[in-house]
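Morning!

This is the sequence you dropped in the shared folder:
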Amino acid sequence: MPEVDPERTELEARLARQQDALGPDHPEVALLHRQLGRLCHDLRDFGAALTHLEQARDIHALVLGDESPELATDCNHLALVLHDMGDLEAAQTLLEQALAIDEKGLGREHPHVARDANNLAGVLRDQGEPLAAAEALRWALAIYRAHLGPDHTTTQSVVRNLRLLGVD
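The structure's back. Tokens below.
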């Protein structure tokens, strides 16, 4: 029998309470689905992660519209799960959707755009597209340098990823 994760149990109970109190399509319910989906991803329970993240995405799309930064964040998290499951095509589609939403709504130089571009680079790399991955990483790097500085751990992580591609 799998070990019970107390954080997951607590989140599931909070989700059930919020669904009862607020209804199944409330934005707070969507955020709990996202949080639970991310935890399930961390626990390598990909099926549950997909279910919760899809719920979060669907609620945010319904309530906030198809150009919401919350929807972009949900697409990003869903893509990370699909990437880990090996569904690179679906992950790429979701990351491109997240990138388009964030770029349009937040601007080309926003840190969420850098997050999206960085995650897309990982998928492109794994699809055997190092030049496209490098382009996405350079974009993310420029944004992170401007917002976080050159010595921030996130900026340095992108520098390492770019170096590992070996396309400079």
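Headline: The chain has a mean pLDDT of 96.

More detail when I'm at my desk.
O.
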